[in-house]
Amino acid sequence: MWTDPAARSTGVGRALVDEVVAWATGESVQLWVTQGNSAAQRLYESCGFVLTGDYQPLPSDPCKDEVRMRRA
Ligand SMILES: CC(C)(COP(=O)(O)OP(=O)(O)OC[C@H]1O[C@@H](n2cnc3c(N)ncnc32)[C@H](O)[C@@H]1OP(=O)(O)O)[C@@H](O)C(=O)NCCC(=O)NCCS
């Protein structure tokens, strides 16, 4: 996900995540975030996601890792 830089830190990202969670069905919502992307990780944590401990190479740049987060 991505929000316009001019609109950042105004709640757009949280609104997007809340909308996806409201739309989703099933036991959990899971996502991958690039390790070290603290802005994105904090956003997801503030929306109730927690790290699962799973990680894998970032598909677009395998020199980096991405970590899995989950919200029940
Ligand atoms: C990450 C991103 C989506 C956040 O979007 P946003 O619209 O700025 O997010 P919000 O305004 O809803 O912020 C919600 C929370 O996220 C966290 N957050 C957002 N930007 C942050 C920053 N620069 N530093 C630290 N925490 C940040 C905060 O916890 C914030 O809550 P608060 O305002 O109460 O402190 C946006 O910065 C972005 O598009 N970044 C580039 C693309 C990217 O990294 N996408 C994620 C890929 S997994």
Question: Please, could you describe this protein's structure?
Answer:
There is one protein chain. The chain is an alpha+beta fold. It has a domain at 29-72. It is 29% helix and 36% strand. The chain is built from two helices and three strands. The chain has helices at residues 12-23, 38-46, and strands at 29-34, 50-58, 61-71. The protein has a three-stranded antiparallel β-sheet, covered by helices on one side. Strand 2 and strand 3 (61-71) form a beta hairpin. The protein is globular. The chain binds coenzyme A. Coenzyme A binds at residues 1-3, 8-14, 33, 37-40, 42-43, 46.
Concise structural overview:
It contains 2 helices and 3 strands, in the order H-E-H-E-E. It has 72 residues and is of the alpha+beta class.
Please tally the β strands and state the result: 3
| Percent of residues in helices | 25-40%
- What is the averaged pLDDT score? 97
Bound molecules: coenzyme A
Strand content: 35-45%
Q: Work out the helix count.
A: 2
Strand ordering within the main sheet: 1-3-2
Order of secondary-structure elements: HEHEE
Tell me the Rg in angstroms: 13 Å
Could you give a short account of the major beta sheet?
A: 3 strands, antiparallel
Derived structural class: alpha+beta
State the distance separating the first and last CA atoms: 20 Å
Which labels suit this protein?
72 residues, 2 helices, alpha+beta, globular, three-stranded antiparallel beta sheet, binds coenzyme A
